[in-house]
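Appendix B. Raw example, untouched.
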Amino acid sequence: MSKHSAGRRAFLKRAVGAGAVAGAAFVPEAAAQNHAPSQSATHSSAAGHGAFFNQEDAATIAAFTERLMPGAEGRPGASDARVLNYIDLALSGAYADLQDFYRRGLAQLDQYCRKMYTQPFARLDAARQGQVIAALEHDKAAGFKWPSAQEFFNTLRTHTMEGLFADPIYGGNHEFAGWRLVGFPGAQAIFTPADMQSKQAFTREPVIGLQAIADAPKRRA
């Protein structure tokens, strides 16, 4: 098994263990409380930001989340799932109380990367990005006060998992990329006996999200 595949498996195990993908609808806690942004607020631009992040911060978040959950052929990553869009929208709504947390965390991350490597995080090569992330995860990145390096890493990892696995109505999990990765079928109206007996990942189309359920009464009208 390659280091890349092992890393993805370890990340998914931690994601499930942390409970970020738990629950029948795979929605984040804030969404369950009806405070998450609606699908109508999602961005149509390819950049997938603009509600909260400026261009520089968006590039950092995009690079960071992709390094946490890198894409590969046949396997979607954070960029494919539009995790940046999810976090950007959440910080302008459900997670507005974390705006200063992110501002300070990103500023400290930038200072650390420039001090260590003379470049911002988004411009570092994959190996150095990995070294920076490891330093954050183990709280060994110097210069972090609030949030601490580990706090910033944990929060961004959690939000990456949410953006990958939450219902697409919240701006991430584009085209059910995360759900397809783990074989989650969405809000199916009915499961066949064969579905109930199967131990394989669910693959029958369509995968159903909250938007389809919301649109159903309109189609019947």
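End of appendix B.
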